[in-house]
Design brief:
- The complex is a heterodimer of chains A (283) and B (297).
- Chain A is built from eight helices and nine strands.
- With 283 residues, chain A is of the alpha/beta class.
- Chain A has a single domain, classed as Rossmann fold, CATH 3.40.50.300.
- In chain A, the strands form two sheets. A six-stranded mixed beta sheet of chain A has the order 5-6-7-3-8-9, sandwiched between helices.
- In chain A, strand 6, helix 6 and strand 7 form a beta-alpha-beta unit.
- The longest helix of chain A is centred in the C-terminal third of the chain and has 44 residues.
- Chain A is globular.
- Chain A starts with 9 loop residues before the first strand and ends with a helix.
- By secondary structure, chain B is mostly helical.
- Chain B has one domain.
- Classes of the chains: A alpha/beta (283), B mainly alpha (297).
């Protein structure tokens, strides 16, 4: 085991990370189209950079919020850190285990029972069967599914599914916890339980990556933040400061949009009135 | 770096990484087998019953169609068909392996080799179950004719299964990655596999082609049958495996064997070379393209 002194300073380190997608208007997924386009020289690559030159250094035990409007690259960033997506350029170093609560339902096979799913997902996260067996009761107890262990998951309610997903994903205390939005599923009691488990992990030194649109929650849970806009890191640093900046900018933008919309509506109304007046005159 | 070190600490994305996920392989394989027979009354018995029923139909049809006698034709037929079905099922199932497991791919990082590998391994397990049908048929003829049809030679099939497994992995990896980018691969493979079956001498024997060639030579025509036989025997790895498999299962029962039924040095060499070459090619392309999967599924 590595001891604290030799452990790397940063638990997650992104250097100049760029992620490229192919934004081709139509996806080519059959051979005929491929050859037709190849012959016509239309096999162009319309690139779209979901993340541009992101530098991010996260220390052990920090709680980071990732904020930004829809489509700004938040989920892409999480996918890169979880090693699901490989960056097109730049490097990523992660020194620790990751538990990701991005899509709780993903990875759960509807046809299998709860018991089989626990083993399947545990193995998927890289644990051995023996290791899962030792923690099995704990997982089941946390998910409150004792009576439904041998029921196929397709018969579960969505709340039960997310309970299963949450307890599988957090079966071991991870070094890094990735949470996308607030856990809005399950009943109040279970939500409370999840929040408790998460704060318990944070107290024990887990590093948190948190995506949210709710600035209050961000301020409460995180001490650092990165603000993304169109794939570019706008600001990084203290969570409070960035939340304020973000709220102001987005607020301004929203106000501008609102004013524009009001203007448009007024113009439309005027037009309609004129038309009505004309019609009246005719008759 | 020594081989053992490389297996212990595999590079991300390399095939050696699958050894890290061996428990996941067991889970994926048992899932496939369990789900296949869940809610069926006879369950695993179908693994034996299914090839048995098909064999009975095919044996009835083909012994009626062909005048030519092959000793213990049902054993000959079943041995050939089982081997073909093993590799064919493994490859056609692994075609969909990546595209069917999209939700797992999007969830976490896992060696992507696992998905086709699990399908191929499940096909092999199913094949081993189906050997029960072969045992039943051999038992039936042993009792009927009062001769011992089982022999220690039978155990030799392990070497053939291993070659088939490695070959199926190579072809499975190659097509699974291609299928992510071109969804037509499935339809093309379905058609090609029919041709492959007819080129693998499952219900006929290559000896027939040599006799036809003799006739053609006698008539002064070009001996096309001979060329065809050469293509089947040398260029079709599936036939090499079937021939070897039959050598261990059917040949000991058949007494004096014609030369076409006994694998020679070329067969042994080519069988191994085809398997290894296919594996290297398949895993090379799979490894090269695996990072792009997530953008296409």
């Amino acid at each position: 085991m590595e001891d604290k002194n030799t452990a790397p300073e940063y638990i997650i380190e992104l250097n100049d990370v760029t992620v490229r997608y192919n934004k081709a208007s139509e996806k080519i997924d059959n051979l005929k189209e491929y050859f037709v386009k190849l012959i016509r020289h239309e096999l162009m690559y319309q690139e779209f950079l979901a993340l541009k030159n992101i530098d991010l250094k996260i220390k052990r035990g920090e709680a980071w919020a990732i904020i930004g409007t829809n489509g700004s690259g938040k989920s892409t960033l999480l996918k890169v850190i979880s090693r699901i997506l490989k960056p097109y350029k730049g490097t990523l170093t992660v020194n620790g285990s990751i538990a990701s609560l991005i899509e709780l339902g993903a990875g759960i096979d509807q046809r299998l029972t709860a018991r089989e799913n626990i083993y399947m997902n545990g193995c998927l996260l890289g644990y051995t069967k023996k290791f899962i067996a030792e923690r099995f009761d704990e997982i089941v107890e946390f998910a409150e599914l004792e009576d439904f262990l041998d029921t196929p998951v397709k018969n579960f309610s969505s709340g039960m599914k997310s309970r299963l997903g949450f307890s599988v994903a957090t079966m071991v205390k991870p070094d890094i916890l990735i949470v996308d939005e607030v856990l809005s599923v399950g009943d109040v009691l279970f939500r409370k339980k999840c929040e408790n488990k998460m704060s318990e992990m944070l107290n024990e030194g887990t590093t948190l990556l948190f995506v949210s649109h709710n600035m209050e929650t961000v301020r409460k849970m995180c001490n650092k933040a990165i603000w993304l806009n169109n794939g570019v890191s706008v600001m990084q640093g203290d969570a409070d400061k960035i939340c304020t900046e973000y709220t102001n900018t987005v607020g301004e933008k929203k106000a501008k949009e609102k004013a524009e919309r009001a203007k448009k509506e007024a113009a439309l109304k005027k037009q309609a009135e004129e038309l009505a007046a004309k019609r009246k005159n005719k008759s | 770096m020594t081989l053992i070190q490389r297996l212990k600490e595999p590079k991300e994305g390399s095939f050696a990484e699958v050894f890290k996920y061996k428990d996941l392989l067991v889970q994926l394989v048992t899932r496939d087998i369990k789900l296949k027979y869940r809610r069926s009354f006879l369950g695993y018995v179908w693994s034996i019953l299914n090839p048995l029923l098909i064999m009975i139909i095919m044996a009835a049809v083909f012994s009626f169609l062909f005048r030519r006698e092959i000793v213990y034709f049902p054993i000959y037929l079943l041995a050939g068909r089982s081997m073909f079905e093993f590799v064919n099922t493994a490859v056609s199932k692994s075609l969909n392996a990546i595209t069917d497991n999209t939700s797992l791919l999007k969830k976490t990082y896992v060696s992507k080799f696992m998905f086709p590998l699990a399908k191929i391994t499940a096909a092999m397990v199913d094949f081993v179950f189906s050997l029960g049908a072969l045992i039943l048929v051999m038992l039936f003829y042993s009792i009927k004719d009062g001769v011992m049809l089982f022999s220690p030679w039978n155990l030799g099939i392990v070497t053939v299964i291993l070659q088939g497994y490695i070959f199926a992995m190579g072809l499975g990896f190659l097509l699974a990655q291609l299928h992510v980018f071109f969804r037509d691969i499935k339809y093309i493979y379905n058609a090609v596999s029919i041709m492959w079956m007819y080129c693998s001498a499952i219900f006929y024997d290559v000896g027939m082609l040599y006799e036809k060639a003799q006739e053609q030579i006698a008539q002064g025509a070009v001996p096309f049958a001979q060329y065809l036989a050469w293509i089947i025997e040398r260029l079709n790895p599936m036939y090499i495996y079937i021939k070897e498999f039959r050598f261990f299962i059917w040949a000991p029962t058949a007494g004096d064997l014609p030369t076409w039924a006994v694998p020679d040095g070329w067969d042994i060499l080519l069988g191994i070379v085809y398997a290894l070459a296919m594996f290297v090619i398949g895993s090379f392309f799979f490894k090269r393209n695996q990072d792009k999967f997530i953008l296409y599924v």
